[in-house]
């Protein structure tokens, strides 16, 4: 009965509200939330229908230029859901929260991350940018503070002094990155979404997310590139 399914219920509204307040939610959390919302608002619940439930919300969000998007953590391959504003590119969305100089630091950090071999930029390299900003120079102490805020706001994530793009950032900015970094940004050969942290084939240059590499080669006796069939020379994670 699809006519019924298309109705936006209190359960859908509750789900959307929670998701918006979090910005991003891990897949198993979203499943629990789906169950909780349906139970609370006495709405029919089917455990395997989360994606249908979300597409009902998305149909109602369309006129508002918003969408709940599903993405993947580049670390461990887990699913995530984020609410994305389609009317604004990431830069305008961020512009309401950050100053011009902070945005410049973010854009320069993004350049470093996307142009890097492995999808990470070291804090040393990022802090060296801080006193070369066009808007005005930024002291290292200031820059460290700004980076901390970018991590708290889930635009960047940090591991042992290395920064990469947060899953939320990748879900939000995929289109922006693919169109602004056409020559370097690549899609994963396996799941076809943007790959920032990736391994690249030395022969033909295709890239794959680390979790996708892991899954793909699990079934293979020897790792060969899915594109050119040459031996995969990177270490399988």
UniProtKB/TrEMBL annotation:
Which GO biological process categories is it annotated with? double-strand break repair via homologous recombination
Write down the EC number. Answer: 2.3.2.27
Q: What is its main location?
A: nucleus
Under the heading Pfam families, the entry gives: SMC_Nse1, zf-RING-like
Q: Which GO terms describe its cellular component?
A: chromosome, telomeric region; nucleus; Smc5-Smc6 complex
Reactions catalysed, as given in the entry: S-ubiquitinyl-[E2 ubiquitin-conjugating enzyme]-L-cysteine + [acceptor protein]-L-lysine = [E2 ubiquitin-conjugating enzyme]-L-cysteine + N(6)-ubiquitinyl-[acceptor protein]-L-lysine
| Top enzyme class | transferase
Q: Which UniProt key words apply to this protein?
A: Chromosome, DNA damage, DNA recombination, DNA repair, Metal-binding, Nucleus, Telomere, Transferase, Ubl conjugation pathway, Zinc, Zinc-finger
Q: In Gene Ontology terms, what is one molecular function of this protein?
A: ubiquitin protein ligase activity
What InterPro entries does the entry give? Nse1, Nse1_RING_C4HC3-type, WH-like_DNA-bd_sf, Znf_RING, Znf_RING/FYVE/PHD
- Would the keyword Signal be found if you checked this record's keyword annotation? no
Query: What is this protein for, i.e. what is its function?
Result: RING-type zinc finger-containing E3 ubiquitin ligase that assembles with melanoma antigen protein (MAGE) to catalyze the direct transfer of ubiquitin from E2 ubiquitin-conjugating enzyme to a specific substrate. Involved in maintenance of genome integrity, DNA damage response and DNA repair.
Checking PANTHER family in the record gives: NON-SMC ELEMENT 1-RELATED (PTHR20973), NON-STRUCTURAL MAINTENANCE OF CHROMOSOMES ELEMENT 1 HOMOLOG (PTHR20973:SF0)
What family does this chain come from, according to its entry?
Belongs to the NSE1 family.
Name listed for the protein in its UniProt record = Non-structural maintenance of chromosomes element 1 homolog
Please give the organism.
Smithornis capensis
């Amino acid at each position: 009965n699809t006519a019924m399914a298309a109705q936006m219920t209190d359960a859908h509204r509750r789900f959307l509200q929670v998701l918006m307040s979090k910005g991003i939610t891990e897949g198993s959390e979203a499943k629990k939330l789906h169950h909780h919302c349906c139970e609370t608002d006495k709405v029919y619940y089917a455990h395997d229908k989360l994606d249908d439930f979300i597409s009902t919300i998305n149909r109602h969000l369309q006129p508002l230029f918003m969408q709940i998007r599903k993405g993947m953590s580049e670390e461990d391959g887990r699913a995530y859901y984020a609410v994305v504003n389609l009317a604004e590119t990431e830069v305008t969305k961020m512009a309401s929260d950050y100053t011009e100089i902070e945005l410049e630091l973010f854009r320069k950090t993004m350049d470093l991350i996307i142009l890097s071999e492995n999808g990470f930029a070291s804090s040393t390299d990022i802090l060296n940018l801080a006193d070369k900003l066009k808007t005005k120079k930024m002291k290292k102490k200031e820059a460290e503070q700004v980076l901390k805020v970018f991590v708290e706001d889930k635009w960047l994530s940090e591991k042992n002094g290395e920064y990469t793009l947060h899953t939320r950032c990748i879900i939000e900015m995929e289109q922006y990155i693919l169109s602004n970094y056409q020559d370097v940004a690549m899609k994963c050969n396996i799941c076809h979404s943007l790959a920032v942290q990736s391994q690249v084939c030395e022969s033909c240059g295709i890239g794959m997310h680390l979790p996708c590499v892991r899954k793909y080669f699990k079934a293979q006796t020897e790792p060969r590139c899915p594109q050119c069939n040459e031996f995969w020379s990177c270490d399988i994670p």
